[in-house]
Amino acid sequence: MNRESTSQNTTFTLVREGMEIIDVHSQRLGKVEHVRFGDGTPRDDYPAGTASVPDEKALESAAEAFVGKDDMPQEVRERLLRYGYFRFGGERLHSDYFVTPDQVARVKNEQVELNVTTEELLKF
What we know:
It is built from 3 helices and 8 strands, in the order H-E-E-E-H-H-E-E-E-E-E. It is an alpha+beta fold. It has one domain (3-123): SH3 type barrels (Roll), CATH 2.30.30.240. Strand 6 and strand 7 form a beta hairpin. The protein is globular and about 35 Å long.
């Protein structure tokens, strides 16, 4: 693991449900609705009280609950599960948006600041 991905993983482990999301242009996008740490995140980096990585059946159920069985290509789902993501949007935005660790610039003051615009995020 290189230095940059280690820094991204450390920053990403600070993300919590309910935090406000700000894009690269300081536009408010919503609040974090679900956080899933990747399979590659060392367990020591998990925040206190966070459950360990669930088994494959639990992952499939969670993925179906958030994006539906047919909405997301398998390779995209596998990437999100491997590297981690957080989700926001839902009915209010008529889509779910997925943010990966490399799209998080920083986490501070209960805000997640992204290094991308909404148009650059995965949307399903």
